[in-house]
Structures are given as C-alpha cells and as structure tokens.
Amino acid sequence: MPKPTEITPAFLANLSQIGQEVCPYRVGGRQAILVNDIDLAKAVLNDESTYKNYYHPYTELSSAFERRAEFVFSKAGSKKKSTSIEISKIIDANTDKLVSSILGNSSNSGVCITDAVRASLLDIMLEILFDCKIGKHSAELTRALACIEKHHATKNSLNFTRFSKTEIFEVEMANSVSRAAIDILVSKSRHLKRVRTTLGDHRFLIAITRTLQKAYNTPAMVLSWSLWLLSRHTLEQEKLRGEILIHSEVGEFLELSKIRRLNLARSIILETLRLLPGAWALGREAVRNSKLAGRDIPCETIVTVSPYAMQRNERFWNRAKVFDPSRFDESRSNSKKPEPFFPFGLGPRQCPAQSFAMLMLQYIVGKIVREYHIEKIDSDDLLPTGYVALRPSRPIKLSLRHI
Questions:
Q1: How far apart are CA 291 and CA 274, in angstroms?
Q2: Signal peptide span per the entry (predicted)?
Q3: What are 205-225's pLDDT values in tens digits?
Q4: Which string of b and e fits 312-334 if b means at least 16 CB within 10 Å?
Q5: Most confident by average pLDDT, 38-42, 104-108, 213-217
Q6: Looking at residue 229, which CATH number applies to its domain?
Q7: What is the Cα–Cα distance from 154 to 6, expressed in whole angstroms?
Q8: Ordered DSSP codes for 302-334
Q9: What total of structural domains would you count in the chain?
C-alpha cells in the first residue's frame, strides 16, 4: 500500500492509473482511499452526514456582499442588462491593468505573470462583492496569502516536519501584511465592519481569508494556466482571435453577453480546467463506518476525490494528457462531455460561482488574445504543484506582442 509523506497531484494521478474504483493508501499513519469512479465520487461528495468536510461553506460573509454580487452566484447571471454592463466594465478595466502590468515589466526573458494575475482578479472580486478598491495593497495581500497558503499546505497534518525559524518568520510577516491589508479593506466597507463585529476578529479573519482565496486565487491559477497553454498552442490562439473579431473589433468594449457567444473561448477554459482544475483534490473524512464498492471504509478514514486524477486518466479520456479544446466544441455532434468532468466540485460544496468564473475567464482570455499574441518563453516542463489551487512548479513566464 502506498505511503506518501504528502499528497501531491502526481501521486494521486499515478494512484488513479491502478484502475480500481477505490484505491487504498496510507498517509501520516492514517488509512486513506482515493475514489476513482465518478458515481462513487458523487455519492461521497453528496453525503455530508457520512463523509465530512470540515471547512466552512463560505457563507459567513454573504450579508456583506453588494447587490451586484447576485450576478456572481446566479447560475444564469443577472437578467438586468445594467448589472451585466457594470460588471463587464469592472472586468474590462482590470484586464487593461493586467496587460499594462505585464507589458510594463516585460524583458527579453518575458515576465512572471502569476502575481499580476492574482492582484487583478482580487481587484475584480473586491469591487464586485464589496464595492471596494485597495490599490497597491492588492498585490501585497495576494503575495502574503500565497506565502501562507504555501507553508500551511506543505506543513499540514499529513506532514509533521516542523517549521524552520526562517519559515516561521516568513509566515509571521505574511500574516502581518495580510491583516493590515484586510484592515484597509474593512475600513472601506460598512458591511464588512458589521460582519467583523458580529463574528469577532479571529473568526472574521479566517472567513475573509478563505473566502478571498477561493474568490480570486483559484480562478487566477486557472487563468495563468490558460495563458501558458495558449502560448504553446498558437493555432488555438489564431482560431480564438478570429472568433472574437466576428463579435467585436480591436479596441471595442466587450460586454458579457458577447462573451457567451464565444464557443472556442469556452472550450479553451474548459479544457484548461480538465487538465489543471482549480479544485484538484477534494478531501473528506468518514465520520462513521461505511462501504464503497464493496470495501469497508472505517470511521476516520481520509477519503479523497481528485478531479485532477480522474480527468487525466486514459480510462476515461482519449489522449488524456493532450490539450485539445475541441473536446468541448458544442457545434460537434459528439460534443457531449464524457464523465468524469467536475473541475468545480460536486454536491452541496461545489463552487457556487462557477458560471460567473467561466464568463470572467473567457472575457479576460478573449480580450487579451484579441489584441495581443501570447508568446512562449519558458520550456514545456512546467508541472503543477498542489496547494489550495494548482500552482506551477516555478513561475509562469510569457510575453505579449501587440497585433
């Protein structure tokens, strides 16, 4: 039985290849299983009375959201055209800032885009959810939260190595910076002030940190991976540019209603999510004895469902490791996506903002590709590393060339 010291995307993908519906392993001295069947995955993720998720459902801040946040959590988006245009303008302005940041820091060796992408998506979500802007503190906050995410993901309960003095200092500094930035955010929102008073400082800090991480960090990683993949597939870039120019000219304001018509843009994001899903591993704990596929699952067993592993498994997908957006082409007669495909999770804890996330990512990628050619800089050996979201094993580098 495999006994990894920590759970990584590569470990889960390799374990998935065994072909069993339930793959046992041990980690940190505890019994664990990887669920490797879509029907069993649905059963686990829908049964919270047997398979517990100890993370809160990100609802504690909902009373602090602004009116237009309804657009984010509505499956079909707000029916009010004014709200759609308002949100389009927010995404459009921050996409321009993102492009300016990449161009302003470019050199012959390209530019590392991840920090700029994170800050831009944080700005979008803060403005939509809380009607707040925190300026330069966005970059400070995202860097601090990235540091906290990295250290806590690698020093979690499955890896008992203690923090070094340097790591303790880094985390303490990151906590200090993130608290200062969050204080600035709260000072700009009377609703957040009220919620912090209700929850108390400690509970509020946990709630706002986790909510922001999910709101901006996960889509930021998907966006970064999408741009990286497109830099390596210039034909897909050209086809996407042609599709966009049918609906809008270079320099013309894009509105979300137009983005909905972009079949290839949608397919590119979905294929990115298949290969590199934001929710790469979904962890649960059995809180009572149960059975899966005839196997006894004792209480306290760690139960892992991995979109990353199943969506890269050749048992389920033809040429599973190949980037091929045509898999999701709605115009093809055989375009119905095969299972398993669940990059936003399944069951009651699946991402409530998945429809909006798709639109936002299509918008940003579409606008960039309409006006710039994304040029490959680094080699093809970039691997995903599993933290809260899938991070690249080293910074993603690329450059933009104006068309």
A1: 29
A2: none
A3: 988 988 888 899 999 999 999
A4: bbeebbeebeebbbebbbeeeee
A5: 38-42
A6: 1.10.630.10
A7: 8
A8: EEEE-HHHHHT-TTTSTTTTS--GGGG-TTSTT
A9: 1
C-alpha span between 79 and 82 (Å, rounded): 9
Residues near 67 by Cβ (< 8 Å), separated by ≥ 6? none
DSSP states of 356-371: HHHHHHHHHHHHHHHH
351 is known to lie in a ligand binding site: yes
- Integer angstrom CA distances of residue 365 from 230, 336, 344, 371: 9, 24, 19, 10
Can the peptide bond before residue 348 be classed as cis, meaning omega within 30 degrees of 0?
no
The boundaries of the domain holding residue 296 are 9-112+219-402
DSSP of 131-200: ----TTHHHHHHHHHHHHHHHHHHTSTT--PPPPHHHHHHHHHHHHHHHHHHHHHHHT-HHHHHHHHHH-
| Residue 209 resides in a domain | no
Residue 207 lies in a domain: no
> How do residues 316-358 score in pLDDT, each as one tens digit?
999 999 999 999 988 765 545 567 999 999 998 888 899 999 9
- Quote the CA–CA distance of 255 and 239 in Å, as a whole number: 20
Report the alpha-carbon distance of residue 26 to residue 7 in Å, rounded: 10
Tokens of 145: 């939260």
C-alpha 307/C-alpha 344 separation (Å) is: 9
Asked if residue 225 is part of any domain, the answer here is yes
pLDDT at 163 (0 to 100): 64
**pTM score, two decimals?**
0.92
Vertex 303 angle, CA 297 and 307, to 5°: 135
Angle between the N-to-C axes of helices 201-212 and 137-154, in degrees from 0 to 180, rounded to the nearest 10: 90
> What SS3 state is found at 77?
coil
> Strand 302-305 to strand 30-35: parallel, antiparallel, or no bridges (unpaired)?
parallel
Q: Tens of pLDDT along 245-286?
A: 998 888 888 888 889 889 999 999 999 999 999 889 999 999
Residue with tokens 């115009």: 331
Place of tokens 């969050």: 182
Is 39 in contact with 316 (CB distance < 8 Å)? no
User: Residue 119 pLDDT > 80, yes or no?
Assistant: yes
Q: Please give the pLDDT value at position 4.
A: 61
